[in-house]
Design goal:
The chain has 132 residues and is mainly α. The chain has a domain at 55-129. The chain has helices at residues 2-5, 22-51, 55-64, 71-86, 90-107, 117-129.
Length: 132
Amino acid sequence: MSQMADIPVNDIAPLAEVHDYSIYLFGGSVTIALVVTLSLILLVLKKWRNRHPGERRIVYRILASIDLSDSKHAAYKISELGREFAADNERTERAYHNLFERLEPYKYAPKVEPFSEEVLGYYRLYLEIIDV
């Protein structure tokens, strides 16, 4: 056996240095997984929140879909539902009071004419001003 230890070994290369990038790959993988997971969670929450509309959104939809052909009944409904949004800010409060004043003649008369273009314009403007 001592004869074998004396033979030089020339065809085996020395150990090569291998750079270890595994910590960077792991960190990148964890970061990408977190971003994807958070994106999915936010997407699901957004879909869920839109599926269950808030009370203000429901009132707004009712206010926007009032039948304007019966002007007396519509004037009462617009006044009642519009009050919900009047306190939002000064602009909506002014718009509500302008609309409310123009609806007064349609409420208390026994027979009323259809809404004038001016009243319909104030109604549409009020709907556009409301933030839902």
